[in-house]
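Retry 2 of 3 after timeout on previous attempt. Resubmitting structure tokens to design endpoint.
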């Protein structure tokens, strides 16, 4: 049986100061809610670069964009706890 994929995806790029600011927010909310997240470098994948190049950081939950540029801690928390 394969592991359950993370509900939260965090799209970033190296050298992005907004990504550096958003990472602790994503980490804290995921820790509080017990959710895992995966981090993806948009510059490592041409498809992701086309989708998100001007918007990083981008946070999605279950494939739906929750925030980009600035991650709102409360909005992310509410999205993750809405089904519980």
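Retry 2 succeeded. Sequence:
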């Amino acid at each position: 049986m394969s592991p359950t994929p993370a509900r939260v995806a965090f799209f970033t790029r190296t050298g992005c100061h907004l990504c550096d600011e958003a990472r602790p927010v994503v980490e804290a909310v995921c820790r509080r809610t017990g959710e895992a997240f995966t981090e993806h470098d948009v510059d490592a994948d041409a498809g992701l670069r086309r989708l998100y190049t001007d918007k990083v950081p981008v946070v999605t939950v279950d494939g739906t964009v929750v925030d980009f540029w600035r991650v709102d801690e409360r909005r992310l928390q509410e999205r993750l706890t809405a089904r519980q």
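Attempt log closed. The beta strands are 8-12, 37-41, 58-61, 64-68.
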